[in-house]
Amino acid sequence: MTTTYIIPVMYIHNRLNVNENTNDKILKRSILEAQELDLMGILGEDLYDKIISDINGQLLAGDYLQLVNEYIAPFLSYAAYYRALLSGSFKFANGNLYRSESENGIEVDSSYLRWIMNEHKSSRDTYSHRLNEWLCANTGKFPEYRTNDYGKVRSKSSTLFGGISLTNYGKIEPEKDPTK
Fold first, then answer.
1. How far is residue 43's CA from residue 75's CA, in Å, rounded to a whole number?
2. Nearest to 128 by CA among 156, 109, 106, 98
3. Nearest-angstrom CA–CA distance, 144 and 51
């Protein structure tokens, strides 16, 4: 089975503060995890499979190309980077967990690492929201978005509860006397 990456590793290098000497294996693994664990849940398995198939067949065009370039790629870059922050810092070898160290760098303490992760999680979530909003507004362009059968990963929008709309949320207005 061929592994397909929706974004190339260079996209992460160019978009985020990732040094060129970062091991591409770490970034590729993070891209794949972000695609399968984060993106597929947004798109649903049918739309995800359609995009992967179009990329493999070099057929990605039109609305699907716009979806990938303008919404999926930015989201995936932050989702993959977020996943790479920890996997790039630690290694599992010989039954133990090791911390990677550099001769030229200064160790980052865990509170700073958490802060960095939260910042990138916030960016990832913003791009996720934009992707969801655009997909919902353009559902007619992507028939695969709502066609996931039982047993397949469904898109988030088809599994969310709409909730209650509160039009005056945050405003407290005095009750009006019905007799006046």
1. 12
2. 156
3. 10
Half-sphere exposure of 121 (CA within 13 A, CB side): 9
Give yes or no for a contact between 54 and 64, defined as CB atoms under 8 angstroms apart: yes
Amino acid letter, 77: S
Tracing tokens 């999926």 back to the chain, one arrives at 72
Q: Where are the domains of the chain?
A: 9-158
Rounded distance between C-alpha atoms, residue 81 and residue 124, angstroms? 9
Nearest to 41 by CA among 148, 117, 137, 143: 148
SS3 77: helix
pLDDT digits (tens, 9 = 90+) for 9-41: 999 999 998 888 788 898 999 999 999 999 999
**DSSP characters over 25-75:** HHHHHHHHHIIIIIIHHHH-HHHHHHHHHHHHTT---HHHHHIIIIIIHHH
Question: How does pLDDT run across 59-96, given as a tens digit for each residue?
Answer: 999 999 999 999 999 999 999 999 988 776 666 667 76
For residues 156 and 163, give the distance between their C-alpha atoms in angstroms, rounded to a whole number: 15
Helix, strand or coil, per DSSP, at residue 178: coil
